[in-house]
Each structure stands twice: as structure tokens, then as C-alpha cells.
Amino acid sequence: MINLYFNLVKMYHFKYKNFVVTFNIVRNMATLKRFYRKTNILLSDGKFEITLDQRKLKTPQRKVLQVDSKPLALAIAAEWDMQKNTIDKSSMHLTALCNTVIDNPHNYTKQDMVNYIVNCLEMDTILFHSYENEELYKLQTENWDPLVQWFCDNYGVNLIKTQSIEAPTVPLETKAILTRHLMSHNYSAVCGFMYGVDAIKSVILTLAAAERVISIKEAVRQSRLEENYQVRIAIFILRSLQLIYFFFLNYFISCYRFRTGDL
């Protein structure tokens, strides 16, 4: 019982330069037939707007959708251009995110969002490692530890990973440093960070993707590491059960034929 307790509270510290072993975007899901032939972008007062034929794209609160980045504007226009006969708004993630930034339906301040992100660090997916499965723990260590160490080195902070169901404590200094870093970004960027953290349940993976240490696809893969592992195990078990089933089925058929002389 004592050994079980110590296993449950087992934690590992990450230190700077010294490694030691619901935010939801509201979307209008109503179906809408495509009413435009082509999309485009235009520059207006230093910001980029998206046009559907001659109409300017607007947010749910009827504000003109404007962004600071030309690549982002082109990406949003591409989302609308990819729609077929029926507009599927649930597939247009950049449009939805920009709508949320501009309309701010929940009246979040930048400080509100930064506080949310910093508090999420304590529940970061890649700080929680398995204590029951050695193979999974090894997989998590090989994939996640380098990313946690990068985070500590890049921001000059200390973190703790755990094999416990109890959340590790994030030092106040680490929270303060992360807060200053996030506050240095503009409102739109922080909103994007919050969306990323909420989507993959990891501050570390979100910032690693933002810093281009890993790709977005890799960030998602890392966030689903345990889930994918469990799926592989389930498929292996299912296939094993199928083999056992067919083995016994053939065995019983052979026994039946032997008894009836139908060989």
C-alpha cells in the first residue's frame, strides 16, 4: 500500500539548463447555400479585407472582417473559396477564430486570456505521464521530455512532470515569466494561443508550434500520443480475439465433421 502511494505521487522536475529525471468558438451552424462566385482580398486603411464577389465579408455582429496579415487574409478567402454548393461554417476555423477576435462575444480582455493560458499550464497534457504502463511511459518520455526541456530553456523557467493523478505545482516565478511573455503579444495573437491551448490541452505544445519548433500537425499528434497508443493496443487485442475466434470456430467445425464422418 505504501509503495502504491509513492508511485501515485511520483514527480520529476525540469529546470532551466538543468534537466532532472474552455474556451469555445461560437459558430453559426445553420446551413447556407453558396451565394457568391469568387473570393478576393483588398487592402483598406492598412488592413486586409475579404470579398465575396463585390460584398465585404462580415462577422456575426455585422462588423467588416479585417486582419493585419495578408497571408491570413488569403487563407480565410481560401476557406470560403473551398466551399461547395452548401457553406459549411464548421469547417472554416480561421474565419470562426477571426470572428471571435473581432466580435469578442464574451468581452474577454487580453489579461483574462493570459491568465487562462497560464493557469492551464498546471494541467498541461505533456506533464502527465503514465504510472501504470511502462511502455507508454517510455513513449511519453521520449516524445515529451525534449519539448518540456525546450520550454524551460526557451523561457528560462522550471517545471515539474508527474506520474500522479495530482496536478504538479507550477512555480510562481514560472507563471510570472510566462505572463510577461504572453502580454508582449497583441490581443489577436493571445486569442489564437488560447484557442490552440483549448484545442490540444497543452500550453507547451501550442507555444512550440507558434515558435515553429514543431509543426501544427506534430503538435496535434503529440497531444494525442496516449490516445493513439490506446487505439493501437485496442486494435491489437481485437485482432487477437478475432484470430482466437476463428481458431476455435475451425476447431469446432473439424470436431463436428469428425463425429459425423463428414471429412
UniProtKB/TrEMBL annotation:
<dbReference type="Pfam" id="PF07542">
    <property type="entry name" value="ATP12"/>
</dbReference>
<protein>
    <submittedName>
        <fullName>ATP synthase mitochondrial F1 complex assembly factor 2</fullName>
    </submittedName>
</protein>
<feature type="transmembrane region" description="Helical">
    <location>
        <begin position="231"/>
        <end position="253"/>
    </location>
</feature>
<keyword id="KW-0472">Membrane</keyword>
<dbReference type="InterPro" id="IPR023335">
    <property type="entry name" value="ATP12_ortho_dom_sf"/>
</dbReference>
<dbReference type="InterPro" id="IPR011419">
    <property type="entry name" value="ATP12_ATP_synth-F1-assembly"/>
</dbReference>
<dbReference type="GO" id="GO:0033615">
    <property type="term" value="P:mitochondrial proton-transporting ATP synthase complex assembly"/>
</dbReference>
<keyword id="KW-0496">Mitochondrion</keyword>
<keyword id="KW-1133">Transmembrane helix</keyword>
<dbReference type="InterPro" id="IPR042272">
    <property type="entry name" value="ATP12_ATP_synth-F1-assembly_N"/>
</dbReference>
<comment type="similarity">
    <text>Belongs to the ATP12 family.</text>
</comment>
<keyword id="KW-0143">Chaperone</keyword>
<keyword id="KW-0809">Transit peptide</keyword>
<dbReference type="GO" id="GO:0005739">
    <property type="term" value="C:mitochondrion"/>
</dbReference>
<keyword id="KW-0812">Transmembrane</keyword>
